[in-house]
Structures are given as structure tokens and as C-alpha cells.
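Dock 3-methyl-2-oxobutanoic acid; give full complex structure.
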Amino acid sequence: MSKNNQDKLVIFDTTLRDGEQSPGASMTKDEKLRIAKALEKMRVDVIEAGFPVASPGDFESVHAVASAIKDSTVCGLARALEKDIARAGEALKPAESSRIHTFIATSPIHMEKKLRMQPDDVLAQAVRSVKQARSLTDNVEFSPEDAGRSELDFLCRIIEAVIDAGATTINIPDTVGYNIPHQFGELIKNLLERIPNSDKAIFSVHCHNDLGLAVGNSLAAVLNGARQVECTINGLGERAGNASLEEVVMAVRTRQDIFTCDTTLDTTQIMPCSRMVSSITGFPVQPNKAIVGANAFAHESGIHQDGVLKSRETYEIMRAEDVGWSANRMVLGKHSGRNAFKTRMKELNIEFESEQELNDTFSRFKDLADKKHEIFDEDLQALVAEGSWSAENEHFKLVSLKVCSETGETPNASVVLSVGDKEVNAKSDGSGPVDAVFRAIESVVSSETELQLYSVNAITSGTDAQGEVTVRLEKAGRIVSGQGADTDIVIASAKAYINALNKLVLSDDRAHPQLGDV
Ligand code: KIV
Ligand code: ZN
């Protein structure tokens, strides 16, 4: 079916902003850049790169993404405050195509309890902010925060006013994930019908998943006229997350008999992007997750296998290769040369900033290939992720590690760490080898952190697989995740713990967009 412009569904990815608001999912500037490039390769229309006023680190990241990305619009979030908008404009200056996304809450509960403002003042501030943003870019998005619990009349009034003030996209957020699909669809329909200048802007939705309905609500909105969906890779995001990009995009693509619009995404980039986000944030993808879970295209029952062998369509509504599950993924091994390695990395969308970085990663690949017979794409991605975890932020470094674990004996660990420019030895017992290692590290570091999560994930199958460990630490309300990968899961655990400690040492204080003023 041929599509005209009206039929385009704009995909606005907020993995780097709302996704990063998941506790423990904070990302470094380099990690954000890698994800932004993968999103650009997937042909995402708009990349929300962050909230520039939140911290100098956030500003730098948005600025770096704005400088690097050419084919997607780069967006920065700003509350409806003068300083936020000015800062967003500044961060976005290098962008080829930029958007400022400004928001203010419009629900009675938010206006009364959080903002302590009267509706008319909220409306006036929204209009002022949109005008200020329009003086910096002609692409301005306005969100009435908590629209899903706002009064329809007030929503119509404020949206009409901000469109008159120059907003080009109106985003309707279900901030607290409270809405139900038929009702949310009805809300979009009402807004489009009742607001006299609604045809002057694109209507967008931004749904949270507190009731597991983020994708359902987003699709209901699209069926009722929304032409932008805000979403994240793997459904990452505040609390239960946002609508998952891969689910929204594939639902629309698969059900073209129902939807009168489509995205222009290259869906074969979904899997590489999903893996990258998971390995950078340390948020594993559940095996039964739609589209990107390990079991999403696996048929266990004999009847299903038989059916698929006879005719794929008996049990499959999508083709695995269309979302990037490559059937013939190339396997590298210890005899693979630098060229084969470089070529495969390029195909995986992994670029090296310098010859030095390529050489370092190739040398770690050779070390891994000595321990592991076959190196899969996932191993290569983990190698790169490991490089970025350890290349920056290295106050603590693992020098060596010895662990004794024997039936009937208490496990113990000896660890050598470098701390700044000193080398320090530590020993400890523990209830298991990992516990002993963490205690030994703590005897040197005394971080006063609380371990919130420890998880091990096999990167590929087989007993020689690398284990990818995630450690989440909390200190005084700040949560960081650390990752480590190795064929030895005790070493991977030590690397993950040290990575989290390094992040704690270096992470800057940042404001949260939805918590009052800064
Ligand atoms: O959930 C929300 O309301 C938001 C806004 C900033 C759009 O993230
Ligand atoms: Zn949100």
C-alpha cells in the first residue's frame, strides 16, 4: 500500500531520557552516543537525548548527541521554565534538526499539590514557554503532564493556546499509567475533534506501563488519530517503564489491515538495539518479552514445530529476520583475523573512535577466543560494552583475584585492587565465592552502599558462555548499576561490583524532571 505523508507514524524514542529515569539505568555520555547512533541507524524520527538542565553531565550528553546525529531530529526536555528552555536551546545548538520538548502538569492533583498553581497561571506559563522555545527552534513539542488524569475542558483550552503560540507537536502523556485503551483512544479523538486548531499540530502520546497497558493505550491513540508515539527500547522507563518501541512498531507493521499509518523504521535494527540497551543499562530482557525476548520466536511444542516446518505462517505472525534475529549470524573464533573482526563489528553497527580502541578491543577478543571456542554477536557486543564500562570512570580497578571454594569449607577470596595510583590487597571469607569477593572489595573501599540487586545472565548458550553480571548499589538515595562480563562468573561479578563503585564515585547530582524546581 502506498503511503502519503499523513499516513506516517512518527517514532519518538525516549530511551536516553525517560528510559534513563529507571532507577539504576543511568548512562555515560559515550554510552548515550552509542545508543543514539544505533537509533539513527534504525531511522528513528526523533531522539530525546536528555534533560539538559538536570546536570552538567546531562547537558554534555545532549550536546554530544546533537553534534553527532545527522539523520534524526534531536530533542531536549525542558520544564516550562525560562532557564530550562534556555539550557535546552544551548545544548541543542549543534543539531542539524532540533526540537525542544517543554511540559507542565495540567491535572487537578498535580496543579494543586505539586505546582501549587491556578489553572490560568499554568496556561499562561505554558504559552510563555512555548513562545520562548519557538524563538530558539521552529520545532517545539508541548506536553500537558498527567494529561491522562486532566479535565478535558482545561486540556482543550491549554492545547489550543499553545498551538497558537507555536507548538508543532502536542504530546498527551499518561504519566502515571492510569488509562485504559478504549478510554485513552476516546480522549485523543475528543481532543482532535474539539480543539479548533488541532490540524496545525501533530498529536503524540507518551504512555507509562503501570497497568501493563502502555502499548495498548498507544495503539488505541494511533487508531484515533495520534501520529507520533513516544516509546523506549525494551520498554525501559520510569517505574514500570514506557511503551516499548519494538512492540508498537511491529504491531503497526504487522497489522496493516487495521492501521492506516506506518513508520519508516528499519526494523532489522531492533534486535541489535535491544541488546545494546540491555547490556549498557544492565537491565536484562525477559525471555518471554515480545519481539526481543530469547523465546519470542522459539517453538517448544512438537505440534507448533511441526506446523512451522510445514508452513511458517501456521504459528508465526512475523519473521524473526525482519526484527534482526539473524539466522546466519557469523561466528568468529580464535583463528579469525583483524579484518573479519572489524567487518563483523561494522555490520553490528559498532564503530571505533580510534585505531587504538580497535586494537584494544581486538586484543580482548583474542583473549576471549582463547577461552571460548565460538564467539557470537552477543559476545562481541559484550566486549564493546565492557570496554566502555571500564574505559571511563576507573578510580578502582581489578588487578587480580583468587577464590577458594571447596565442599565443606568456607569460601574465601584474595583480591588485588588498584585504587587511584595505589595497589591494595584484601582478603575475606564469605557465604559463597561471590560474597567473599564483594566483602574483600568492601574491606578496602568501605563504600557504605547497599546491594539492591545481583544478577547473572548467560550471554550465549553453552557452559563456556560468558556470564554478564549486573550489580545495583544504593547510597543515600542514589542508585547505580554496574556490569561485568567474563567466562568466569566470579571475575564477572568482581568487575560488575567495581564498575558500580566507579560510577558512584563519579556520577554527578542530577535533578529529576518531574520533581518540582531545581
Ligand atoms: O511521563 C511524562 O509525563 C513525561 C513527560 C515529561 C512527557 O515523561
Ligand atoms: Zn514519562
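Observed: The pocket of 3-methyl-2-oxobutanoic acid (ligand 1) is lined by residues 18, 103, 143, 145, 171, 173, 175, 206, 208, 513 (CB under 6 Å).
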